[in-house]
Amino acid sequence: MPLPVLVVGPLAYDDVRTPAGRRTDVLGGSAAYASIAAAKYVPTGLVSVAGTDLREDDLRLLRRVGVDVRGVERRDGRTLRWSGSYGDDFARSDVRNTDLGVVAGWEPRIPESFRDARRVVLANTDPRAQREALDQLTPVVVVLDTMEEWISGGRGLDQLIARATVLSVNARELAMIAGHDDVARAAAAILDRGTRAVIVKYGAAGATLHTSVATMTVPAYPATVVDPTGAGDALAGAFVGRLAELGGLDAVMLRDALAHGVAAASATLESFGVDALARADRRELERRAAWIIRSGTGQGPSLYEER
Question: What's the pTM?
């Protein structure tokens, strides 16, 4: 049977300061958040890279929540290290240091048992590595995440976007890619490149999904914010995991999957690192997703608006 979801991206150890406190050396990385979230819904494989300092307890955590870690490559050197802080509004991180470690020059190798994956999350990392991974796969759905560094770095991101089914970015990143600030116009420009949908993440204001025929907007779930790191990665993972479970890409399924993605993001906020997301059970995510759908109907921007 084909693997329902594959996540490709780095693991990391993070040092984080927020108004809620400070933690050092906590498991993070875009692929950790995305794979844990996707595994709440369907069997999920992980292709990643880590150094000799990757703790066995962290691998056991990933296995315990249902992530198949056979694609995690261990290399001599240090696991990616990220250090940052958040202001009083939790809205923007101040990245103090990023040590790529073994991620530098990483060439993902997809295990044979993962190559039939039907849906792929290309978690935030160098577009070159994302492209190399995608070249080894033939998925029906590709969810692509990225960040400002890769957008401004001229690393062939445009060609990768054209191969993506869904692009998941925040409003600033979308503006950088499209070349202007109007979100609707910018999303339409991305859709013209062949992408089926664009997710725009607004943090505490929720998220919007744009397709060629509709715009779907959902509110954020009210969570006690401890650390916002990884929330967007969890959104992408849960979104594609729920789509895999539903088995399609129609408007109702996209709406449902977006609500589940925002629900997983809200759980991620409630601890430093991946702990709260790992603890969240399916019943809790269903409850939050149902609240998001109910609250998005008739309040503010509608959950589903025909263009």
Answer: 0.94
